[in-house]
Write a structure and sequence with these properties.
Keywords: Membrane, Transmembrane, Transmembrane helix. By secondary structure, the chain is of the alpha+beta class. The chain has three helices and eight strands. 12% of the residues are buried.
């Protein structure tokens, strides 16, 4: 009768040891696997974007429908730092001042080869919409003080 009691203890000890081996093996495996970031970017390089304002026109207060709409000439530069080619869909460029969108444009889709640079001339406009007069006065005051700042948002799909 004592032998059946001992068999139950052996199975419990074996199950406990097997569970510990599996748990520790799983933990070691997780620590040895590469991170998700290194899987997405195996060469640890990044894609960088920069935008340069080349010119603008139509920055006038909205008084009548004949007022020209704001338009901004931008040069978007995308640099692929990776050693593999990247393909992206079209992106959006939005230019705003004090949280109010002044102009926008959709950029075309393109493919960048490895270590390639893409330069896109972008003319962002907002057809039929002038700048509200209060916002225009604020912008002109800040321009005189040397503090006017446009916010340019560029998103790649």
């Amino acid at each position: 009768m004592a032998s059946t009691h001992k068999k139950d203890d052996d199975y419990g000890c074996f199950s406990w040891m097997l569970a510990m081996i599996l748990y520790n093996g799983f933990f070691i495996l997780l620590t040895l696997l590469p991170s998700m970031r290194s899987l997405a970017y195996p060469d640890e390089k990044t894609t960088t974007c920069s935008i340069k304002l080349a010119g603008f026109q139509g920055l006038e207060p909205a008084r009548s429908p004949e007022v020209t709409s704001p338009a901004f000439d931008l040069i978007v530069r995308v640099t692929n730092g990776h050693t593999f080619s990247l393909r992206h869909g079209s992106g959006d460029v939005v230019i705003s001042y004090a949280g109010i969108p002044l102009a926008h444009r959709r950029t075309p889709s393109s493919e960048l080869g490895d270590m390639d640079v893409l330069v896109l001339p972008v003319k962002a406009t907002n057809v039929g919409v002038g700048i509200p007069s209060d916002l225009f006065r604020l912008m002109m005051d800040e321009t005189r003080w040397g503090m006017a700042q446009l916010q340019v948002e560029f998103g790649l799909a």
